[in-house]
Amino acid sequence: MGKLLQNRSVRYGLIAGLAVVAIYFVAYLINKEWVFNSFLHWATVGLYVAAAWKAVEDERQAQEGGKLDLKEGIRAGFAVLVVSSLLYYVYYFVLHGLADPGLADVQAEVMREVLEARKAMLSEEQYEAFSASLNEESLRVTLPNTLLTYARSLIGYFLLALALAFIASRR
């Protein structure tokens, strides 16, 4: 375990993941609706990006001449994103799936409010389709759907790591 923690990408991933879990847990304790706030979501993605960028930059600076190989940059950034999002999804499953399954009801209500606020932007068919999809049962958190969501998130995070590595390799 000690050798694993010496890997700066793993370390940054743990820091970012624990920070995101702490932010969401505090939001949950203050007001359960905040857990579904889109600003909070994007702010935590910003934390992931900052941690991944730090790992990529550290990797670039560690290279002879400060020139980063794209593959090494992707590896450094993606490792941060894999670890940090894994921590988040473990927390997500424990909270939403085990500790407080009633969060699905809160989420459905928040989504209904957002849908109503944006009703004028949708056609009647779109509104009806979105409205019909907002049942609490479809929002229940299970281990299989959490694992699938985590796996899908890694696709986007790989592309993000690629972009960060590309930028850093051009410096």
From TrEMBL:
Q: Does the keyword Coiled coil apply?
A: no
Superkingdom of source: Bacteria
The alphabetical list of record keywords is: Membrane, Transmembrane, Transmembrane helix
Q: Which Pfam family, giving just one, matches this sequence?
A: DUF4199
Q: Which InterPro entries match?
A: DUF4199
The membrane-spanning stretches of this chain are 12-30, 36-56, 76-94, 147-168
This protein is called DUF4199 domain-containing protein
Source organism of this protein record: Phaeodactylibacter luteus
